[in-house]
Design brief:
Largest sheet: 10 strands, mixed
Structural class: alpha/beta
Oligomer: single chain
Helix content: 40-55%
């Protein structure tokens, strides 16, 4: 299949480069990095081995071929551009893979291309953009892929999901296809909600947050609040997930600055709505007041000078 990559940063740059290195037909839409990547390709410094790869780079979506699959790795704060971009880069009945954080982030693409198959991608990876066309992959790399259903029912392993999974596996990407995308998104929020927000508010990395008992307990409390909200919204997450995630972060993950901390340090918009507000609103409709998550979101809005309007 022919792939388009929209958002060649820490996520799209890494996974797109893995596809390109293994001779998949991949086309990258770039903005500020276009000239550099067009001339020098993508550079990946990875725990699995460094590599450079020449890629098909484009500065304008209208110059790209119409692809079978579009990988969307933009920040959710830039999703407003998809209405213009998507119809120009992917077939109307193609496949769109949304590699973003948050709940129901696939709905934007589903509204734009109602005949397309929409797949959600949850990336469990330590990856940072170091400079133009330069990505550092420091930890993990697995991606869970699930077929999006508007009613959030269990889609199972669909043929479209199988095709993308096969291509990713063939390129050395660790892939876990999941039958229930909504469940997986809630599960990832258990980690994302405390670590992303607290890393900004407390100006600390993951190891620093876990080093002190008081912040470790705060993280666990936020995790348990997310788990309670997930259960109220029909996604049966076990409370034991919180401690498992804490132990895994302490023992198996290198000290890491979550993506929201990197965004804050570079004065980029924070994904408060996708990671926090959509979850808080949904939980409220199910009778759960997420006091800790709401306070964290309010602090993030203050620090980002975003009044939330």
């Amino acid at each position: 299949m022919k792939y388009a990559v929209i958002g060649t940063g820490a996520i799209g740059g890494y996974y797109g480069a893995m596809l390109a290195r293994n001779e998949m037909d991949v086309h990258f839409l770039l903005h500020s990095d276009y000239q550099h990547v067009n001339e020098q390709g993508l550079r990946i410094d990875s725990i699995n081995g460094n590599f450079n790869v020449a890629v098909n780079a484009y500065a304008k979506p209208e110059d790209m071929p119409l692809c079978d699959v579009a990988i969307i790795a933009l920040k959710t704060t830039n999703n407003h551009v998809l209405e213009i971009l998507l119809p120009q880069v992917v077939k109307h009945n193609g496949i769109v893979v949304i590699m973003q954080n948050g709940l129901a982030v696939e709905q934007v693409a589903a509204d734009i291309l109602p005949q397309a198959s929409i797949i959600g991608g949850l990336c469990f990876i330590g990856s940072t953009k170091m400079g133009p066309g330069h990505i550092k992959h420091s930890d993990f790399g697995m991606v869970s892929l699930g077929h999006y259903m508007k009613d959030e029912s269990v889609a199972g392993i669909t043929p479209e999901l199988g095709l993308v999974t096969e291509d990713f596996l063939a390129c050395g990407i660790d892939v876990k296809p999941v039958e229930n995308l909504c469940f997986s998104r809630w599960q990832k929020l258990v980690w994302n909600v405390p670590f992303n927000g607290l890393s900004v508010v407390l100006n600390s990395s993951t190891a620093e947050l876990l080093r002190q008992h008081v912040t470790r307990e705060l993280i666990k409390s936020i995790m348990l609040e997310v788990i309670a909200a997930a259960n109220a919204c029909g996604q049966p997450l076990s409370a034991s997930v919180a401690e498992l995630m804490l132990v895994n972060t302490e023992t198996n993950m290198q000290d890491y600055a979550p993506s929201m901390k990197v965004d804050y340090e570079h004065n980029r918009p924070l994904e408060i709505n996708a990671i926090y507000q959509s979850m808080i609103d949904r939980a409220a409709r199910s009778g759960v007041d997420m006091k800790l998550a709401r306070m964290l979101a309010q602090q993030l809005q203050f620090l980002s000078r975003d009044d939330g309007q």
